[in-house]
């Protein structure tokens, strides 16, 4: 089993912890606010919230560099603002830009759905998670970003959103996996569906076991 941390500087971290607590392979689910806590976990979730606020607090508490180092070698999943922080490039940022943790070879557009649709729910297909149109995943989008480009062949697209009510893309990418890194534009922790959390824990366990075997 593994200990999973949830970055708890701002945003929807408690909801992630509650879902993780019902997964048998998770020995502990803990909030992460400092380097000691970051050092004590096997895998990390970066939650939704405001990516600018999370980045500011992380910078002030000296966590940005340790987070970058963690993400290079340990399983990490970013949801919504967390996905923005894991991207190597973000568009529509604040004046002067904003700090990112990086690690994922993707470009994201923040607040892609603008003010006309601040939040909505859509049942979507997700690779590895759903098998047919009868078990779609309830994806909750809240001032959500989308993935506007994939910048490496190592990035696998797991889900797209058919946006027939949005002017932007016809099928925006909303979930990706790159090795030990996972990102979703939506908020699985705000639903009762724990399939993505279980998937992340499995990806993390497989990755950490493989690393152990290589030693
Ligand atoms: N709009 C937020 C940002 O840009 C993300 C919203 C969310 O995490 N629900 O950081």
UniProtKB/TrEMBL annotation:
Its EC number is 3.5.1.2. Keywords: Glutamine amidotransferase, Hydrolase, Lyase, Pyridoxal phosphate, Transferase. GO terms for molecular function: glutaminase activity; lyase activity; transferase activity. Pfam families: SNO. Signal peptide: none annotated. It comes from the Eukaryota. L-glutamine binds at residues 49-51, 110, 142-143. It is an enzyme of class 3 (hydrolase). The keyword Repressor does not apply. It catalyses: L-glutamine + H2O = L-glutamate + NH4(+). InterPro entries: Class_I_gatase-like, PdxT/SNO, PdxT/SNO_CS. One of its GO terms (biological process) is pyridoxal phosphate biosynthetic process. The active site is at residues 80, 187, 189. One of its GO terms (cellular component) is glutaminase complex. NCBIfam families: PLP_synth_Pdx2. Belongs to the glutaminase PdxT/SNO family. This is glutaminase.
């Amino acid at each position: 089993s593994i200990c999973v941390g949830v970055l708890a500087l701002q945003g929807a971290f408690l909801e992630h912890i509650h879902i993780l607590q019902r997964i048998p392979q998770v020995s502990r689910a803990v909030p992460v606010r400092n380097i000691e806590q970051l050092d004590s976990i096997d895998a990390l979730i970066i939650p939704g919230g405001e990516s600018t606020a999370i980045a500011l607090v992380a910078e002030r508490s000296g966590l940005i560099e340790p987070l970058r180092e963690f993400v290079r070698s340990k399983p990490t999943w970013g949801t919504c603002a967390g996905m923005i922080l894991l991207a190597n490039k973000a568009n529509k940022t604040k004046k002067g830009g904003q700090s990112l943790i990086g690690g994922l070879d993707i470009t994201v557009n923040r607040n892609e759905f603008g003010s006309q649709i601040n939040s909505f729910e859509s049942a979507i297909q997700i690779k590895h998670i759903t098998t047919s149109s009868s078990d779609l995943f309830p994806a909750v989008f809240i001032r959500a970003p989308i993935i506007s480009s994939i910048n490496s062949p190592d990035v696998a697209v797991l889900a797209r959103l058919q946006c027939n009510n949005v002017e932007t893309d016809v099928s925006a990418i909303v979930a990706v996996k790159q090795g030990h890194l996972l990102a979703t534009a939506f908020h699985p922790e705000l639903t009762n569906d724990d399939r993505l959390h279980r998937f992340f824990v499995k990806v993390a366990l497989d990755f950490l076991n493989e690393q152990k075997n290589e030693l």
